[in-house]
Amino acid sequence: MLPMLPFKLIYHPQYDLDLGPHVFPSKKFKMIHDSLLAEGIAEDSDFAQPEPAPDEDVLRVHTAAYVQKLKTDSLTLSERMKLEIPVSDATVKGFWLAAGGSTLAGRNALRDGFSANLTGGFHHACAGHGEGFCMLHDVAIAIRSLQFAGAIRTAMVVDTDVHQGNGTAAIFADDPSVFTLSIHQENNYPMPKLPSDEDIGLDDGARDPEYLDALEKGLLRALKKMTPNIIFYVGGADPYREDQLGGLALTIEGLQKRDRLVFEQARRLKIPVASTLAGGYARRVEDTVRIHVNTIISAHDVALRPK
Fold it and tell me: Which terminus of the chain has fewer Cβ atoms in its 10 Å neighbourhood, N or C?
């Protein structure tokens, strides 16, 4: 059992989008929650439950027309195909809760130095449409909500999903208050890619040493350009070598080193971190869960390390 967590985890049972037999294993969210409890990493008191994001926050990022279509289940066939998951009461509620959860994680991180939303990182969602399993851009909604409230002025998104964060790049294009970094497999979805402030496109089959070296160099470049008020860390599990939708070759141990690298650099500069999960489609869902649980362990270890 680990010492008591010095930060809050955000979770809601309705994070499970009830997708049935789908390549996106939304059941992983409950499995992560349950694993954290079963392994003694967290206790019930370490979890906070979010409210759905208020529509005024959602509308700081997404168009009124798109939000109305989601609320009335009136997307066109082509819009549904682009989204790649069904629109239902469960999915709409789940994504509004995810956005509320990432906002709450941001607020808690500003107070405690770290927090994690046990869903989120839906980085393909754009202002006027969803795509790639991403209905709402929870991280963008959280950043805009915190900026509107005056809690932050600047933010950085550090995105380590195997797929480039095109929605993040589009939403924050030409916005100097938000720095976007994406490290991803270059020859993978989406095509074409919209430019982030710092894009690190890796060749197919990149392994732990190459990945970690590229991430460290890219993160240091980014942090020389901006020392943000907060980092939103999108900790994708899909750079894993057994992932069905990825073509990189990281080990579970390498992915935990990745998490630790990001958290250590943030701690060095005293930047709060709000973490979200993002993709993970391993052949064994238990591997995806392990990778996400390890992110929380890494944050715990870094947070309790003597300064």
Answer: C
